[in-house]
Amino acid sequence: MSRPSDHYDSPALAAVSQPRLGFTGWLRWFWRQLTNMRTALFLLLLLAIAAVPGSLVPQRSSDPNGVTQYFADNPDLAPVLDKVQAFDVYSSAWFSAIYLLLFISLIGCVIPRTKHHFQALRAKPPTTPARLSRLAGFTERTIPAGQSASLAVDSAKRMLKSGGYRVALFERGREFSVSAERGYLRETGNLVFHFALVGILITVGFGSGFGFSGQRVLVEGQTFVNTLLAYDSFNPGRFFNDESLKPYKLTLDDFKVKYETKNLKAYGQPLDFTADVTVTHRGEAPEKSQVKVNAPARTGGTDVYLLGNGYAPKITVKDPNGVVVFTDAVPFLPQDANLTSLGVVKVPDGLAEQLGLIGFFYPTQATMDSGAFFSSYPDLEYPLLTLNIYSGDLGLDKGVPTSVYALDTDKMTQLTGGKTGTKSIELKPGETQQLPNGLGSVTFDDANPGAKAGDFSGSVLRFASFDIHHDPTQLWVLTFAVLALLGLLTSLFVPRRRVWVKAIEEADGSVRLEYAGLARGEDPALESAVAELADRHTDLLLSTETAATASDKT
Amino acid sequence: MNLNELSILSLYSAMAVYALAFIAFSFDLAKRSAAVKSAAELTGEAESRRAAAEESHGLKSGGTTTLTRISARIANDAATPYGRSASLRVGVSLTVLAWLIHLVADVLRGVAAERVPWANMYEFAMTGTLLIVTVFLIVLTRADLRFLGTFVTGMVLVLLGIAALRFYVEVAPLPPALQSAWLVIHVFVASLGTGFFALGFALSGVQLLQFRREASVAGPTGGRLRFLATLPSSATLENLAYRVNIIGFILWTFTLMAGSIWAEQAWGRYWGWDTKEVWTFIIWTIYAGYIHARATRGWRGSRSAWLAIIGFSAVMFNFGVVNVFFKGLHAYSGL
Ligand code: HEM
């Protein structure tokens, strides 16, 4: 059996009498159920439905913060949803079960068809049916006496053959016929398509286990070495081995941003982000390169993507004696389109108490009617840093990893801002202020101290966040996807059809020609193709006849 | 008046002309119903009428058929033959006119923005509807689907109305995330695919109505939608719908692939089950189901037609709801 028994083109099975179903009988029965068209259809539709919930509920894979938020917003519902893996739909047991069954069905369906197709490729076209008149595009023509039926069929055969048909001649009494078939490519394409899908699944399933993805934030001037420890976060595949990391160096030399300034309706919209980097491979000279949003740098077996950027104000904290206890460019996370940014500084050692600073940075500070600050433009026109100071226990000593972007203020006392009655610290680049309670001082360092007064354009460094990936499956998946597309095109557009031409010698010596076709699958042009064949063939016969009679006369 | 304002003016003009075309097409449907009624009264027995029609067109005999174009076959298998119709021709002419003005609106928007005019919801809607009409007009040259004019102009009107009133945004430059050749390819092919799916949806819908009429006990000229008797048989409609839908499916497959390539360049992974990716996948799977249904005994005919209808509903949902209300990386609605 080539196609599933419930394919519309398969012969209807006589009601199968139920044999005694032993174990193997049941197995065979189950296998037949799994590999029929209806099951495939059912599983396909089920897969479509099963994919929906993952778009309604945030997913851990693509939106982990959304999941945390969901738990906070729906404390009762979320754990229940979590039980049914609603936050990991696409790796859930039920989703995997559906697509695995679907692909088992697919393989079970496609292998017998492939076998059958190989046989069909070598077989001769089938015998001409006794009666063509019931077939598609049936056409009759008569040519006058003087022509031989077998020669007429011969010329039809040649015509069909040059049209890409496989042909076979048959003879039954005074009936000569040619049986022709074309379009095996249709089935080939269909099989290629289905196999390519299997190829995609297997490469994605196994191949991606060898890859990794990691994130790293770099401030202008900083360098990163491609080793496990240098990543801020790292997600290895199942079979990943860290010896496969090539320890190249990547330095962020400069991060350039262009904003719209002419079109007032889109004023301040970013036009371009460019990270100028230098990549140095071990034992080689440094190379300049660039990373842009839609243009990753591909180097050392990894792809480096630019995913985010922002400001990294350089902050220095000194103790009352002027000894530096903290100094660093601290990446602040952008909160809105005009890059109001939020950052945290932790000073665990060197001062009388542990100190935590929560800062807001406004690249172009403006004031609302309420007195609150906001940023009115994303570039450095009028930068301002505000800091709220907390003292107490930073909670760093418990060995629990904490985020560098968040400050746990539970065991701390707020010293400035909010309800403390003491004003928050406000700093412009280059300015210094004393910390409350004589703790020391804090400075907002100017990254470009030599600039003209009022020119802040280089006063604060920028950071870029990079995603660094290695995915060995990419090329394979692309190859299979292209194969699938090509297979699909041939299987949907190459018509598979059979055509017959029959020539019958009548009693009066004339020859009756019959033409007919049979579609194998969708074939809207079949009837016109048969009609055209009939026209061309009779024209040819008649013209050779007139040519023959013409030459007779001379 | 700047280019964008000119574009808006053209768009509103196009909508007005589409509205006129819609009226002409509706008028034609009404006339079809009337023609069916009088034909039924004349012969009293519609079935004989149909037999006669088929005989005279040589469909059954199959004898010396010289059909060279599918269109001939489509026009001929209606239960009640329907002659020339002035309002139909007016409808088509007005649609062509509206399409031209629509094209001008779209091109002007692109020139005003100095880039392809499909980078936010307003522009997707404008270009997408333009492509729907383009596909319709192109298909008209190969098959007589003018009876779908009411549907096509009606739908385009509604979509353009929503676009102009709810999705309108000022011209803005492309944000870095959209600066890619894949925007041009991926979004264009997706919109083109949508054009074919829309037509397939309409054909499948009419197919279902037609099937109900053919099977109805009230007789083939009964029922409220009498004009159906002048349209091709449900079997012909099904084949037409299939041909249109598979073209849509191939374009959609390409959209999916191009999107993955772009996602790899922009976000570092070719597939991440982002909401928009999920819905593109769902749509693809539904239409794969539709194609399978057409090859499954017991699922040809009405059941597969329902799948095509569900598929296009998912396309519209993806465009109108997922883009606007769902959270995800594809935050480009511009709203
Ligand atoms: C991942 C699951 C599957 C997908 C996405 C899929 C998709 C498709 C598509 C798009 C087509 C039309 C294009 C073509 O003819 O090549 C098709 C055709 C076909 N598929 Fe599948 N398929 C899947 C699984 C299966 C399974 C499990 C079976 C067997 C039970 C099957 C049997 C067939 C057959 C027989 C055809 C030809 C239909 C015809 O004769 O027109 N497919 N499939």
If you had to describe this structure to a student in words, what would you say it looks like?
Chain A has 554 residues and is an alpha+beta fold. Chain A has four domains: 27-111; 124-181 and 495-553, 2-Layer Sandwich (TATA-Binding Protein); 209-308 and 466-481, no CATH class; 312-451, no CATH class. Chain A has ten helices and 26 strands. In chain A, helix 2 (37-51) packs antiparallel against helix 6, helix 6 packs antiparallel against helix 8 (184-207) and helix 8 packs antiparallel against helix 9. The longest helix of chain A has 30 residues, at 93-122. The mean pLDDT of chain A is 89. Chain B has 335 residues and is mainly α. Chain B contains ten helices and no strands. Chain B has helices spanning 3-43, 46-56, 70-76, 86-113, 121-140, 149-167, 181-215, 234-267, 275-294, 302-325. The longest helix of chain B is centred in the first third of the chain and has 41 residues, at 3-43. Chain B is flat. Classes of the chains: A alpha+beta (554), B mainly alpha (335). Chains A and B meet through helix 2, strand 1, strand 8, strand 11 and helix 9 of A and helix 8 and helix 9 of B. The complex binds protoporphyrin IX containing FE. Chain A: Residues 37-529 form the ResB-like domain. Chain A: Its main location: membrane. Chain A: Pfam families: ResB.
